[in-house]
Amino acid sequence: MKKLAIGVDIGGINTAFGMVDENGDLYAESVISTKKYPYVDDYSAYVRDLCDAMHAMAQSLSFDYELTGIGIGAPNANFHKGTVENPANLWKFRDGESDPDESRRIFPLADDISKCFGGVRTLITNDANAATIGEMIYGNARGMKDFIMITLGTGLGSGFVANGEMIYGHDGFAGEFGHIIVERNGRECGCGRRGCLEAYVSATGIKRTAFELMARMTAPSRLRSIAYDDFDASMISAAAEQGDPVALEAFRFTGEMLGRALADIVTVTSPEAIFLFGGLSKAGKLLFEPTQWYMEENMLFVFKNKVKLLPSGIQGKNAAILGASALIWQDTK
Amino acid sequence: MKKLAIGVDIGGINTAFGMVDENGDLYAESVISTKKYPYVDDYSAYVRDLCDAMHAMAQSLSFDYELTGIGIGAPNANFHKGTVENPANLWKFRDGESDPDESRRIFPLADDISKCFGGVRTLITNDANAATIGEMIYGNARGMKDFIMITLGTGLGSGFVANGEMIYGHDGFAGEFGHIIVERNGRECGCGRRGCLEAYVSATGIKRTAFELMARMTAPSRLRSIAYDDFDASMISAAAEQGDPVALEAFRFTGEMLGRALADIVTVTSPEAIFLFGGLSKAGKLLFEPTQWYMEENMLFVFKNKVKLLPSGIQGKNAAILGASALIWQDTK
Q: Which residue in B171, B177, B268, B307 has the most chain A C-beta atoms within 10 A of its own C-beta, making it the best mutation to test that interface?
């Protein structure tokens, strides 16, 4: 009988899910709103409605299959405990609501979802780790034992694989490479500190860079006609492709910051390859060329010209569902 | 029958070796000179004389035992290939001697030693990785699956363990945390770049710091009477214990540099503990207190107050032999 896993990708706006076999083929998919359930006391209804929608999807299949497990990618997920802990944008306290326990909101999501499916094995990890396992099972990292995945979205996520295994770390939260500090007293970061890599290298980071450059440079630029609030990172790619000097410098600088940080982390984990995934990585050589150049320029001699910088092999709209489902196939190997 | 492993620690001056059981008890030990064999064409004689001395030691035991394997700690060792590659201070070319292949000197040491002992399993890694495995098998990391070892000698070595396994990386050279760049255009490093962590945090690093501080500060200091060439790091500990202001500031600064770097790397591997090993770590709270403070001060919120900073449990003169022998016990588990 065909074996399928359900992959669930929980974002702040929507929760997408699908049924996937071990080759990464998708047999059914569906979506529910996440943002309809904004508060702590909406969490139970969210779980109930998500399970109902998953059952409806599962029943839509016209062939027999065995459900091997459910893999979930979610922000602030703890792989070891199966929980989502203090997510910034999910199931918040209502204004004025107080929290007896130092505002910790810990949701036992893996257990709750598993219960709706007769106790089937259910694993959870953050979205970047899920994408990393997706790359290992279905993507360009197949057969690799040591690699790094960098996911470039609103922030910078990462996943590290060593000896063929995901590094979750002692507390289940490893892989926060976006929060190494690359500039003392640098840009403010959402984490409350300053100078984190993701404040420079991410969709938000390159936008901040473009605004800094508009102040620093005198060259004309089409970007100067757009207000900060109306601006998104894709406008920089579009401008760079037209030769806009501010946009080109923004990519060069972003590649410099990323390349230097990668040279540092290569000394620690010595990966075979580094994959770039997500929105900003779609800018292609605008990003890859300076990143590669600065990575090699700053590399310790023993690692020079050894580490491949590659695009992800699971780009596309289903990458997050595939990544989450891969948690199950990874675990059964 | 009792099982024993031989641990071999190859330094630039001497090669020490001993016979160790799986509890870390040492039954015999001996030493030969390394520096008597300085050149590439001395390598064969070195291997022959080392094997002879190891056999003599093995025959000195008055009871029957089974030789489980030989573990070697050596500079620039490649675990995957069993080689020592381009070591800076071992088996060099003679002046004027040329190298047809871009000065690569690759010595198949694991195979060569194994052959002298009837093909017994022989593993090799660098000294910091050997110490790391020693900590895991005999020391304070017993039972830990995720930890970091920092060895503070002339340079800064490191070993990373994740999911209970040593991270050797794709090419076998992982764990060069001493060469992350902590100061752009900072101090010159032996690796040819600038601003590496070990140029600040190591016996050499704190000595450089003391000299910088003597220039920057006006406070009196007993260190001002010692020439650079006559100076070693232990003088800074001795002065700091007497309240010398330059020496105290040197430790504070060293702790700041190390603490910041540790906060960064914790975000990536999320260890249960970080162990400090080697000469500089013997300064105790002079080093541990500022390191801990700056590590926590710079830590991403999810990791705050979670990661233990601990002294190594295998300090002492046999640590390097124990560490090397632990390669064998680690591999048989």
A: B268
| pLDDT(B103) > 90 | no
Q: What is the ipTM of this complex?
A: 0.90
Which pTM does this prediction carry?
Answer: 0.91
| Residue B1: Cβ-neighbour burial (10 angstroms; 0-12, 13-18, 19+) | exposed
Instruction: Select from A125, A114, A11 the least CA-distant residue to A70.
Output: A114
CA distance A93 to A105: 9
- Test A179 with B267 for CB contact under 8 angstroms: yes
Tokens of B126: 């660098």
Other CB atoms within 10 A of residue A154 CB = 16
Distance CA B91, CA B96 (A): 15
Residue-wise DSSP of B293-304:
HHHHHT--GGGT
Looking at residues B116-125, what average pLDDT do you find? 96
Q: Using CB atoms and an 8 Å cut-off, which of residues 142-171 of chain B contact chain A?
A: 144-146, 158, 160, 162-163, 165, 167-171
Name every chain B residue with its beta carbon within 8 A of the beta carbon of A265: 180, 268
Query: B265, exposed or middle or buried, with CB in 10 Å at 0-12, 13-18, 19+?
Result: buried
Question: Side chain identity at B12, as an amino acid letter?
Answer: G
